[in-house]
Write a structure and sequence with these properties.
There is one protein chain. This protein has five helices and no strands. With 129 residues, it is mostly helical.
């Protein structure tokens, strides 16, 4: 359904999803290098998803993979909302130079992340076919 939109709209949706994820990382961690790293990784993931979709036996085209990419990235950004206070705390400590041996990421936040990304993957799969 969404894969039938013009390519320009799909690229705008993918750019918006990338912007949202980078904005979330920049807003909470306040580390420009990390935001730039997330942007570069996002672009590589988008291109990688398009390439992988082309080589699969089912052959997903670039439009379908852009829909998948956009929905997964929005799901990832939504999954980062519940632990935002934890990320703000870790970011403040990191900027002040406090180093921890291990950074705890509670299981409840992991479950929210997995569910969010999983639901958005299923939704993208349904809307991309």
């Amino acid at each position: 359904m969404l894969a039938q939109l013009p390519l320009v709209y799909l690229l705008l949706i993918a750019a918006f999803a990338t912007f949202i994820l980078c904005f979330v990382v920049d807003r909470w961690m306040k580390v420009r290098k990390l935001t730039l790293f997330v942007l570069v990784v996002s672009l590589c993931c988008c291109l990688g998803m398009i390439a992988v979709g082309a080589f699969q036996p089912a052959h997903w085209n670039s439009r379908q993979m852009l829909v998948m990419y956009s929905f997964v990235w929005i799901g990832l950004a939504a999954g980062l909302i519940p632990p935002r206070k934890l990320f703000l705390e870790y970011g403040d400590e990191w900027r002040r130079g406090v180093k921890r041996d291990a950074y705890a990421y509670p299981v409840r936040y992991q479950v929210v992340m997995y569910v969010s990304v999983g639901v958005m993957c299923l939704l993208a799969f349904v809307l991309a076919t």
